[in-house]
Amino acid sequence: VQTLVCLLALCAVGWMILVWNVKPDRTEGFFATTMNSLNSIASFIVPTSLLVLGGLQAASYSAVTTDDLGRYWSVADSLLYLGKYPVWNAQAFGWMDLPTFPLLIAASFQLLGHSYAAALAPLAAANCLLPFVMYRASLSWGIGRITSFAVAVIVVVAPPVQIHSLGSAAPDPIFIVVMAGSQWLVGASVGGRRTLPYGIALGILAGVLVLTRPEGTLYAATILGVAILIDRSRWSLVVLAAATILVAPFVFTSLDQLGRPWPINRQDIGISNLISNVDLVKQVTWEKLARVVLLNDIRFPLLMGTILFVYILGSAIHIKRCVW
Question: What predicted TM-score, i.e. pTM, was given to this entire model?
């Protein structure tokens, strides 16, 4: 921690020196020379630094907790060695895990060997890519480079996200990076890039969201709705067709194994589960998050309320600026 503090202090001092020596017209002096040099290599520095940041986050998997990893590992082994998709039973109700994470684990086993590190490799890869993908997603919606870079960095290093989502041995990192990728393509499509490859790629990402987490269906439906809203021609049909083709095989598998089109336990997407999750956030997550940011008093609700207000205000302003 002391080393990090010293490094940040040195960076702050260096920046103050640069600003102090800036010329009024910003065309001469050490500051201008430095900034011009940085701008000339910005196209290389920015993606490289974001990938390095993602790699540092991925390194946290050297001491990850197992969480639900064992179950996904079992599904991957069943696919590789038994050739069938396993069905779980809980209180006389059969269900199956969604296939994205198990399929990635199985592919990783084939490439890297049957090991703990190989099982975590898909999560590590998602963490590596996330900062850069988030940066590109922000750019695609017309947000400036500095703000886009700041958003990508802050989201990845925020302790609650870093520990509970990106650091979990569950498909959350994969889901988040696919969600960011879909926002990248949606933003580019709103800007006019509604070509066939973009439509197919967006449909594939929407399908992957459906096949990764239970709430992915809602996110995918939103993406498809936006696609139809911005283009009611054949392009939106391409997006819908790509998503349907990707999801259809698992629907048929569920019909064969369980006799119903979707394998998730109904309680996972029911009102009762939503209420229990809200209670968990209220009783556990809220308190732990307040302690993480060292504001476990009235300042924490004020901070969260301010962030929510700024988010809503910024979103409203940005939506007005967008060309639909």
Answer: 0.80
